[in-house]
Amino acid sequence: MLPNNHNRGEQTKRRTFPQLLAIARHNPFMISRWVLRWAVVGTVSGLFAGLYWTFLEFITHQLERFQGFTLLWVMPVSGLIIGLVIYFLGNPGEIAVIVDNIHFRGGRLDIRKNPSMILASLVSISAGGSAGPEAPLVQVTGSFGTWVADRLRLDGEDLRSMSLAGMAAGFTALFGAPLGGAMFALEILHHQHILEYYEALMPAIVASCASYLVFAAITHLGIAPAWHFPQYHLQNIDDFALAIVFGMVGAVTAWLFISIFRGCAYVFSRIPGPIYVHTTLAGLGLGILATLLPLTRYFGDKQLDLVVSNNFSVAFLFAIAIGKIAAISITVTGGWRGGFIIPLFFTGACVGKAVAILIPGMNPTLAMICTMAAVNAAVTRTPVSTTLLLSKLTNFGPLTPILFASLIGFFLAPKIPLIESQLKSHEQATHS
């Protein structure tokens, strides 16, 4: 459903989107008003994302100068700061909490968690944690959508749609793909590809487009492809079979990632003490990994191009992939803040290229992108939006091989998703 008008205490009948379109033929200002509101949410979200990214780049430039053994103290100190921020300002949660709020709190995201999320994520990402900015961006922009809905006195699906519009704007700002970002915000809510909140698709797309324009104007990012893969042209039907094969490779990688992730979560759950003890220990682990395997530091946005352009050995690529899986797991389960979508893409690229080297005549671009798609789709359960995002981020023209790989990763994923709140249905939410 689209937002209702509750002004002056009147109870307005809830209408479907086709009904609103019919009414709009006689009263176009009704749709125009809602489009304007969605655009405002997207514009403010894009402005925040642009400022956040600019400040993040500045801090990262200062901290990336630390290399080698200095990371053995820089990373733990960073972890201590992150833990103290969370300890005193409150735990902002992660993507799983956001998904849970969409299901069970009527789509209400708490704006009071933003200071903790912003500060903790800025330190986490700039210091070199293997988690990206998608989680903080989605939390802040989604909660802004909730705030706007509260000002407009919206509730129910209307409020939820406004929050989802903000979330979509946050995803889009990072990935530079309005349609992919909008779809991702809706698709990540469930472990099956059921767009239960389809009524929020139009608000999400409008907000995403506005956010994309503002973010691109501020940062000059998102216009060109994020990563520079060699050109690929679909000319042989056998490539679809290869896409399926690399979808299987990505699914196996996702199973390994989920196993290691859950193992790290168990270990940290057994460690006593406040959150800053966990984050400091996580910082030490990340510092050791970054000292031994420097490419595992940071969330992989810039490092992925190095994997694409350099002739690394198979052994090194597999070592980087395993190290990255460990780094992502330690980062997230150890209390550092950020998302794991781009780190998963990086992991998939390493595995895909390693396998492609082992197969004579294999196109490395096809192998890497299909493995990237399958890994992310298997972990996040988002095959459609993953296809759209990767097509934009890599400038990979043919959508079909990516979609085949994404679907294979999705269908071969573990029964219990990593984000367990994806299992909770809208029907459960309405009865809770």
Automatic annotation (TrEMBL):
Keyword DNA repair included in the entry's annotation: no
Organism of derivation: Aetokthonos hydrillicola Thurmond2011
Database matches in Gene3D superfamilies: Clc chloride channel
Membrane topology summary: Multi-pass membrane protein
GO cellular component, one term: membrane
GO molecular function ontology, one term from the record: chloride transmembrane transporter activity
Top-level taxon: Bacteria
Protein name as annotated: Chloride channel protein
Localisation: Membrane
Keyword NADP listed: no
Transmembrane segments: 35-56, 68-89, 164-189, 201-228, 240-261, 273-293, 313-333, 340-359, 396-413
Pfam families to which the protein is assigned, alphabetical: Voltage_CLC
Alphabetically ordered keywords of this record: Membrane, Transmembrane, Transmembrane helix
